[in-house]
Write a structure and sequence with these properties.
231 residues; alpha+beta; 8-stranded antiparallel beta sheet; 3-stranded antiparallel beta sheet; elongated
Length: 231
């Protein structure tokens, strides 16, 4: 009975390390993605279980801001998200590497319209300025104000591709006035690449150690089963 219990525990541990490696590798792959929010995987003890349960969550902490000098690069200093319009509805993002499309709309890297208080922002001038409060000016004239929102208490965010988030309740968003919009800057991913690479090595070693332990227990159990059968 003890052998089966040990093998089951080792198998669950291998499953945990396998998922931890996937999460860590994905974080590292997005280390240079502006506004990327890293995922974290931790083991939690549940009262009715004899083994820890992996819990995955997204770290929404602020990443470092980096000067780029590019007019349409934006970073948010403080909590909240920009809002973009997708074919499946509005989504939230911290990625601020923006551009103008063929219709002079302000869009993100995937061509999705960045929304202001009045909808998609159209800029036809040559001198574009964005104030810290999100007001967008074209040739000195105010055009709109960027929507900067955050989920209300109890509203969760589902992480999607390209660093976008879907709120569990589309109506559960509130405007954030304290956050500053920084023009010609980008927010870096909130993770340390060097620490991530070290973690990958540690995960691989832990995985290998558990595989060795699993094989040893399987061998012992096999021997015991064979001996019992002979008796």
């Amino acid at each position: 009975m003890i052998g089966f219990s040990g093998i089951l525990t080792a198998a669950r541990t291998l499953s945990y390390y396998n998922r931890l490696q996937e999460v860590t590798a994905n974080n590292l792959a997005n280390a240079n993605t502006a506004g990327f929010k890293a995922d974290r995987l931790t083991a939690h003890r549940v009262a009715d279980l004899d083994h820890p349960v992996p819990v995955e969550a997204t770290d929404l902490s602020q990443g470092a801001l980096r000067m780029t000098g590019r007019t349409l690069d934006l970073a948010l200093e403080g909590p909240g998200f920009l809002v973009v319009e997708t074919p499946r509805g509005e989504r939230l993002t911290r990625g601020g590497s923006l551009r103008l499309d063929g219709a002079s709309r302000l869009v993100d890297g995937d061509g999705l319209a960045v929304l202001g208080q009045q909808g998609p922002i159209v800029l036809t001038g040559t001198d574009i300025q964005i104030r810290p409060d999100g007001t967008v000016l074209s040739d000195g004239a105010p055009v709109d104000q960027l929507r900067v929102v955050a989920p209300k208490e109890g509203v969760s965010l589902l992480k999607e591709a390209a660093g976008r988030f879907l709120p569990s309740d589309p109506e559960g968003l509130m405007d954030v006035e304290s956050t500053r919009v920084r023009q010609a800057q980008l927010e870096e991913a909130n993770l340390n690449s060097l620490t991530g690479m070290v973690s990958l090595v540690e995960i691989q070693r832990a995985y290998a150690a558990n595989v060795t332990a699993l094989r040893a227990m399987d061998g012992v159990l096999g021997s015991v089963t064979t001996d019992v059968a002979r008796v």
